[in-house]
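Subject: Protein record for review, amino acid sequence with backbone structure tokens
Concerning: The relation between a protein's sequence and the shape of its backbone.
How to read it: Take the token row as a discrete description of the fold.
Enclosed: The protein record, placed directly beneath this head.
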Amino acid sequence: MMAAASSGPCPEGQQNHGNFLDAPRLERGVTRFWLIRHALVEENARAMMYGTMDVPLCPDSLVAQQPMYEALAHRLPSDACWFITPLSRTRSTAQAIQNAGYGSRDVTVEPGMLEQELGEWQGLSHGEFPKRLERAPHYFWPLSGEEKPPGGESMIDVCARVGSTLERLAGAYPKQDMVLVSHGGAIRAALAHALKISADTALHFSIQNLSLTILECHDGIWRVVTVNELPGI
């Protein structure tokens, strides 16, 4: 996890300078993405490869992790544009953050930030899933970056989709803060795009539930500000 400054104006004498981020706060007027992985899903869903299935959040976790929602509500810029994916777990997570003190905001559904589509393999148990693979799985992901399930996507496909989405949003919302409640695979794909690394390399990043990853786009050049920051911890 990498620590990062919060968003807002820098006090006099504490400005970021040159190419460095060394002030307590991030400067305004930067095209900045605040990527949040959705909260923990319910127990039955965690027993299978749910991919893009629309599974609900864990109700007990919603209560137990209330301090994390409050920390995110305080951490995020107050004037950000909000985006979720078509799956209810991202909408529910966004709602919980807003209810925890951020305040109600309109959200825009962005399909380009969906999780990896596992096609015919979705819904398989964790024990059954490896039997379907044609390639060795990634050490930190159920399948390699090149593995493409029947009717689904490879992580290489996800990286291309997410990269295109980020470029489009950066062009549509220049110099604005954007909160994107998304998924672990999609956030790894965003890092792959920002760092120009392979899908397999990006899968080495840990992206935990409710973690925050911040990316910036400066005239088409991407910077990673923080990865897998856990709110309130």
About this structure: Strands lie at 6-7, 25-26, 31-37, 81-84, 107-109, 177-182, 212-218, 221-229. The two ends are 11 Å apart (CA to CA). The longest helix spans residues 155-172.
